[in-house]
Amino acid sequence: MYLDLDVVLAELKADDWLASDVDLTAMDAPTTSVATGIELQYVMEGEWPRDRVVRAHQEIDDLGVEMVPLDTAALDAAAELRSQYDSVNVFDGIHLGTARTLDEPIVSTDTLYPDVTEVAHIDPRDLG
């Protein structure tokens, strides 16, 4: 299962709105991409201390979530999906493209993802 940033944040932020609904043990082989580590740094820049932000990728690893590298196949899939769906932004495209190339469902509460028919979507609140 490919985890979007909201699921990762639910595990790393004590006060996250989704924290009580996410259970990584209920997910089969959770993965995410290195882009999630970058996005996590970007999102938490003003909220976490700098020494934590710059090592955010290590916290993802500590959760037992495999971080897969980005490759041209994922970026090509992201470009294809972004060209088909105007509402898909850069990070959404990378997450969807990576999930597609891994042939994994994307686990997220993002309301955009169910409309992207090329990638299966699972709401993490449905896994508990």
Description:
The protein is mainly alpha-helical and 128 residues long. It has a single domain (2-126), classed as 5'-nuclease (Rossmann fold). The protein contains 6 helices and 5 strands. It has a 3-stranded parallel beta sheet. α2 (34-44) crosses α4 (56-62) and α5 packs across α6 (90-102). The longest helix is centred in the middle third of the chain and has 13 residues, at 72-84. It is globular.
By DSSP (H or I, 4+ residues per run), the number of helices equals 6
- Biggest sheet strand order reads 1-4-5
The total number of structural domains is: 1
Return the CATH architecture.
3-Layer(aba) Sandwich
According to CATH, the homologous superfamily is 5'-nuclease
Low-confidence stretches: none
Overall 3D form:
globular
Q: Please describe the biggest sheet, giving its number of strands, its sense, and whether it closes into a barrel.
A: 3 strands, parallel
Topology, number of strands: 5
Q: CATH topology, anyone?
A: Rossmann fold
Helix and strand string, N-terminal first? EHEHHHEHHEE
Class in CATH? Answer: Alpha Beta
Query: Measured on Cα atoms, how large is the radius of gyration?
Result: 14 Å
Structure class: mainly alpha
Mean pLDDT level: 95
Distance between the termini: 15 Å
What is the strand content? Answer: 5-15%
Helix content: 40-55%
